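Hello,

Our lab assistant flagged a job as stuck in the queue for most of the afternoon. It eventually completed. Since we weren't sure the result was trustworthy after the delay, we are filing this so someone can double-check. Below is the sequence as submitted and the structure that was eventually returned. Let us know if re-running is recommended.
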Amino acid sequence: MRRPSPALSRDAAFDALVSPTVMLDVDFVIRAVNPAYLRATERTADELLSVNLFEAFPDNPEVGGAPALVASFERVLRDRRPEHLIVQRYDLLEDADQPRYRTKYWAPACAPVHDLDRVVGILVRVDDVSDLTPEALRSLEKRRDREQRLRAAAARDEEAETRSMLIAINDFNAMAEEIAQLREALTSRSTIDQAKGLIMAERRCTPDQAFKHLVKLSNDTNVRVADVAAALLYRAQGGASGNRS
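-- returned structure --
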């Protein structure tokens, strides 16, 4: 059996996570961020480390996304169980002088960090789902709100907790395919955008011209545009050798 590489530390595994991920202590102070999180928030580690999350990212007062996140963090610390908010709007501050915010939607998933029998922090994964259609976002928000109502009812009634769990399981099964399709769409879009950037750099062309080139390759090879884009990225990363298209 192959042994784990001694060069692979927990820090390396954390940095390699594809999803934007931040580590908070019990006071919601940022203790670690991975590169994907820095790219998603357009910030540097020096700006974020040892700063309270809600000071680093002030809440948009017109939206008020912070209370839902705080409540989720507190439940994770109290119940010692992971929690997925499904979707949450939390805008990014672009200009503190105006102030001006950029609309952003995230899919926050939180898990407790244990040190033996103590919970010492929270691991928070925040996938950016801002590119989903308004209809898809509203659908996810409705599911989130329903789960929160069921959770509140369960807190008041132990029997309701059992019922809400059964309903939540049924809801989860019903939406699993929908979520998978949404994630696939996000992944495909990201891959196509990266491939367009590669073609633009190689051919010194516009985004529209780059996309038309992708479509032509797709038609010529009878392969989906997303798969053609993935193949171009794979080749560019050294996965395969060959001449430029």
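-- support follow-up --
The delay was a queue issue, not a problem with the job. The result is valid. The radius of gyration is 21 Å. The beta strands are 21-25, 30-33, 83-84, 88-89, 92-95, 100-102, 105-115, 118-128.
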